[in-house]
Specification:
The chain is mainly alpha-helical and about 210 residues long. About 50% of the residues lie in helices and about 10% in strands. The chain is built from ten helices and five strands. The protein has helices spanning about 5-30, 50-55, 65-80, 80-85, 90-95, 100-105, 110-115, 120-125, 125-140, 145-155; strands at about 95-100, 165-170, 175, 185-190, 195. The strands form two sheets. It has a three-stranded mixed β-sheet. A two-stranded parallel ribbon has the order 1-2. A hairpin with a 3-residue loop joins strand 4 (about 185-190) and strand 5. Helix 3 crosses helix 9 and helix 8 crosses helix 9 (about 125-140). It is globular and about 40 Å long. It starts with a helix and ends in a 10-residue tail after the last strand. The relative contact order is 0.12. This is MCM8 N-terminal domain-containing protein.
């Protein structure tokens, strides 16, 4: 084998080894992810514990529609003891689904006064609407955590389950065969109790 061939063969081996090293380093970065560094948003400027979990791409503004709607949900929770008593860390950690009857929202005059476009927002902009509800629920759950354990819980937040939310009795019920392209981006209640928000070309459950 010529000296030139040996040189290129050695160079290929070196390049391959370097590539493996980079891949390993990237994987190591994922393994060494430190939940202590997770900033979920609550500070002197943002009073919500999970702001960046649900609205990471939006600036916190006290006068925004998101804050007004979230406060409407918080007030609704406080008025409904059956729901508020379920919102604690123990239920959250075991993956309990927090169910809200849509008609309890519709029939709550104070809630509808605070969020008059709720029905339209849920259908037309389900992602932000559901996130407002989840943010309000998340806040109420974390408010039940004693101060002496709060920091520990916040540092372990990456190990907590996804918040599960179900809106019951949403109408109209849509059959899969009736789905059309103009349903893109809309919130729907489908047969077999599937809650879906069609915001991509695939369906995902809104929980």
């Amino acid at each position: 084998m010529s000296d030139k061939s040996k040189f290129y063969k050695k160079r290929r081996k070196t390049k391959k080894a370097t590539g493996n090293c980079n891949e390993s380093s990237s994987h190591q970065d994922e393994i060494n992810y430190n939940p202590d560094d997770l900033d979920i948003g609550r500070n002197t400027d943002i009073p919500y514990y999970a702001w960046r979990l649900f609205f990471s791409d939006k600036e916190y503004k006290t006068t925004s529609a998101i804050i007004k709607h979230t406060k409407a949900i918080e007030a609704f929770i406080e008025r409904h003891e059956a729901l508020s008593t379920l919102l604690n860390m123990a239920n959250f950690e075991v993956g309990l689904s927090f169910d809200i009857d849509i008609y309890e929202l519709y029939n709550d005059d104070e809630f509808m006064e605070q969020w008059p476009d709720f029905k339209d927002d849920l259908y037309e902009n389900p992602a932000d609407t559901l996130n407002c509800i989840k943010l309000g629920i998340y806040q109420k759950i974390f408010e039940t955590v004693p101060d002496d354990t709060l920091q520990y819980v916040l540092k372990s937040i990456s190990n907590l389950p996804t918040l599960k939310l179900s809106l019951l009795n949403y109408q109209p019920i849509t059959s899969l065969r009736d789905l059309k392209l103009n349903c893109y981006g809309k919130y729907m209640y489908m047969h077999k109790h599937i809650h879906v928000s069609i915001i991509t070309h695939t369906f995902y459950t809104c929980i």
